[in-house]
Amino acid sequence: MNALLSALLLAALAFGILHGSESVTLSEAADPDGRARAILLFARIPRALLAALVGMALASAGGAFQALLRNPLADPFILGVSGGAALGSVLGIGFSLPFELVSVAAFAGAVLSMLSIYAVSGTRGRRDATALLLTGVIFNAFCFALILFVNAVVTMEQAYQILFLLIGNLEVTDMGTVAIVAAFVLSGFFTLCFLSGRMNLLSLGDDEATSLGVDVGKLRAAIFFSASLMVGAAVASSGLIGFVGLFIPHAVRLLFGADHRLLIPASGLLGAAFLVFADAGARTLLMNTGYATQLPVGVITALVGAPLFMLLLRRRT
Amino acid sequence: MIAKSRSPAAGEEIKLIEVGFSYGSSEVLRGLSLYIGRGDIVGVVGQNGAGKSTLLRITGGALAPSSGSASLCGAEISKMKASDRAKKIALMPQESRIPFSYSAVEVVLAGRAPHLPAFGFESRRDEEIALEAMEKTDCAQFADRPVDSLSGGERQRVMLARAIAQKTGVLLLDEPTAFLDIRHQAAIHALISKLSEEEELTIVAAMHDLNLAAAFCRRIVMLKDGSVLAEGAPEEVLTEDTIRAVFDVNVTVGKDPATDKFYIVPTA
Q1: Which parts of chain A have pLDDT scores under 70?
Q2: What is the pLDDT, as a whole number, of residue A28?
Q3: Is residue B59 within 8 angstroms of chain A, CB to CB?
Q4: Closest in B62, B82, B107 to A207, CB measured
Q5: How far from B75 is each of A220, B11, B186, B220, CA to CA, in Å?
Q6: What is the pTM of this model?
Q7: Domain shared by B74 and B117, yes or no
């Protein structure tokens, strides 16, 4: 099954790389000095790879948070880390930092919020799922209040940038950024895959998991930190791309069952493929319509994801 | 008359010595001492909030005692490595809400987790063990159904099968038959007796139904306010006096001449 999804991901990447506002064929790209080759190397390939990494991060972290919180409605943005990352970005935009530094500020925001959420949620002695969830939700609300505050005092141009960030947008990317994001996302992904057997036990309940040999406190910390770092890297590089992290794990569960040992890797692969396709759509949908802009990919994910999900849900019942 | 705690006999397995436990500022267990021998079936009875579940969770290692010690064959339970403890003690908590649509057999297979490496899938042998456990608790017929579509009683049989599939020497059961119909109640208690006799499992069950406890447990531990009020054979412990002391209710304790089993009914 995961082999099938890997093939789907490769197909998505090929499609995403060859598809765009300017059509490019492989034979054109073979010309070392051609424009086609430049488009591929400096625009399409990094962007498709980033889309795949972000999709993988959001979908697998979403599945992991659902197990961690024992709540199928959880998504990667529920535990506050995304709010911290978005706030970092928004402050970066507000202070007119260069693009690279905005991402750094976002990632710093993610790490800081991750550490403080973890510390605060444990102050009542028991760091259970409810404490973690409440802390995260409240932290998010606070961050968004600050984001809207910043949004109200910046220039129109900056406010527009902030809007794109909140919808989720895959910006122009260089291979260096892709490599950094890849380091966080892939290490997080493999850690989550390794922990996925124990996620099954954790989802049965704290006492059950303990009785089945799981050190619940350590497992919770491991899932929270590795998924949060992935989410931080994803939000820092592309803003809050919604719906992927909620919809993909559910789709995988409907298609292949609830066992996390399949669910986590499959969600990562399917999420990656989905976001590459969605981004190809976002880049080309308004092509030849007179609008000079590209859609933010966050518009497409929910627009396509929601009806697809309804369809899956209906087919199952 | 209130029966006194018995002194430890040879081959004792579980020892609780002066165990105290508090959730925040509310003290749930105080100075609780208890000895449970290998192959014993012990029913823990007492009012809601008397500490029955806490006692089980401490014995299962889900909680560490605030004071005193809880040990299994001499090893402090809260200090054992979780993965080692899971091979020796299985805990079936009261009611489990499972948020995902696992199939029933997947839930039972989770009982094999302590016997698998950190990341791995169950072998055919594990599947055989799981199905065998499901047959014992009469739930193999819905092995492939999603657990969230099962009734409370059906789910309880699945959870018990999971604890049995864990293949531990000690089974801790919190209200194992609370949601079961009378046929399955009898069947599960017969199974518990059989497991203790044939496989020498040590079984500790928190129970509300005093008649069931009397019928199926070899020993009864009566809790009041977080410590042991009385302990011993059912007919020694479950008297009109102790029941009034613990539950604040008047009962008649009698013996059915036909079956020689004794019964407890509240007097109006």
Answers
A1: 21, 123-127, 172, 288, 290-292, 315-317
A2: 75
A3: no
A4: B62
A5: 26, 14, 34, 24
A6: 0.89
A7: no
How far apart are the C-alpha atoms of A104 and A85, rounded to whole Å? 9
Residues B147 and B182 in one domain: no
B104 and B220 assigned to the same domain: no
**Which residues lie across from B230 on neighbouring strands?**
B222
The reported pLDDT for the residue numbered A317 is 54
pLDDT value of position B3: 43
pLDDT of residue B11: 41
Which of B100, B107, B126, B148 should be substituted to probe chain A, the one whose Cβ sees the most A Cβ atoms within 10 Å? B100
- Tell me, yes or no, if A157 comes closer than 8 A to chain B by beta carbon: no
| Exposure letters A47-75 (e unless 16+ CB within 10 A, then b) | bbbbbbbbbbbbbbbbbbbbbbbbbbebb
CB-nearest to B100 from A196, A253, A261 is A253
Domain around B113: 98-167
- Residues of chain A found within 8 Å of residue B90, distances taken between Cβ atoms: 211
The superfamily CATH assigns to domain A2-20+43-316 is ABC transporter involved in vitamin B12 uptake, BtuC (1.10.3470.10)
Q: Mark the ranges of chain B whose per-residue pLDDT is less than 70.
A: 1-12, 268
Do A201 and B110 count as a contact with CB atoms less than 8 A apart? yes
Claim to verify: residue B76 and residue B112 sit in the same structural domain: no
**ipTM of the assembly?**
0.87
Q: Cβ separation of B60 and A253 shorter than 8 Å?
A: no
Chains A & B: contacts with CB separation below 8 Å: 91
Looking at the fold, whether B27 and B127 belong to one and the same domain comes out as: no
Residue B93 domain-assigned (yes or no) = no
Distance from CA of B104 to the nearest CA of A (A): 12
- Inter-chain touch A258–B100, beta carbons under 8 Å: yes
Q: Domain segments of chain A: what residues? A: 2-20+43-316
A151-156: list long-range contacts, CB under 8 Å, 24+ apart: A151/A90, A153/A94, A154/A93, A154/A94
The last residue of one of the domains, among B167, B191, B217, is B167
B226 touches chain A (CB under 8 A): no
Nearest to A210 among B24, B82, B102 (CB): B82
B193 and B152 both lie in a single domain: no
Instruction: Give the closest residue to A80 by CA, choosing from A47, A42, A119.
Output: A119
